Amino acid sequence: MNIFRLVGDMSHLLAIIILLMKMWKSRSVAGISGKSQILFAIVFTTRYLDLFTSFVSIYNTSMKVFFIGTSYVTVYFIYQHFKPTYDSNHDTFRVEFLIVPVGGLAFLVNHEFSLLEILWTFSIYLESVAILPQLFMVSKTGEAESITSHYLFALGSYRALYLLNWIYRYYFEGFFDLIAVVAGCVQTILYCDFFYLYITKVLKGKKISLPA
Amino acid sequence: KKDARVKDEL
């Protein structure tokens, strides 16, 4: 565990907590893409099946359980508890265009042709694009609340920090995983436009609003 | 060993 990995994990944890707090305090899921959140629930479920097969550490296990659990709570909030506030008209990204190609790719490009390994690979690929319905929603409505922007920034930072973690691990531990690194790069690149808006607008006290 | 690959990461 190096500093980049730890701060990355904390950033990921913070993103999830920000999102849950936003929904709970405002009693609303406005501006949040239910489709992205369903994708994240699928990502965590397919990646952390190794909870049943291997034990790494208390830290590892509790984070995995937390990520899976909160992802289902989030989906429940959007589609049940706060359903009247869910903006489905603007959440129109076609997720099958992500799931089908990503599933095919995981089947073709993986480290080992076994069920758990293919599901893990699928999860890594899917995570890299899972935010697209959310980014699509922001661009469609042309705005994002500050709290949603903070969520997206924390969530995007997490994978960017993992990239630094992988550079560190490559040099000091000889560790290198091409699938994770390529997917991590794709994931981080998808956030670049948002990072720019966040730094130039949200940090100066303005909310993100795009020209129509 | 391959099995220990990314499994310690989240």
UniProtKB/TrEMBL annotation, chain A:
Subcellular locations according to the entry: Endoplasmic reticulum membrane
- Name the membrane topology term: Multi-pass membrane protein
Looking at the Swiss-Prot or TrEMBL record, what is one Pfam family this protein matches?
ER_lumen_recept
Molecular function, one GO term:
ER retention sequence binding
Which PROSITE patterns does the entry mention? ER_LUMEN_RECEPTOR_1 (PS00951), ER_LUMEN_RECEPTOR_2 (PS00952)
A single GO CC term for this protein reads: endoplasmic reticulum membrane
Predominant location:
endoplasmic reticulum
Q: Which GO terms describe its biological process?
A: protein retention in ER lumen; protein transport; vesicle-mediated transport
Q: Which UniProt keywords apply?
A: Endoplasmic reticulum, ER-Golgi transport, Membrane, Protein transport, Receptor, Transmembrane, Transmembrane helix, Transport
| Transmembrane intervals | 6-24, 36-59, 65-82, 94-113, 119-138, 174-199
The record's comment on protein family reads: Belongs to the ERD2 family.
Question: What name does UniProt use for this protein?
Answer: ER lumen protein-retaining receptor
Organism this protein belongs to: Dreissena polymorpha
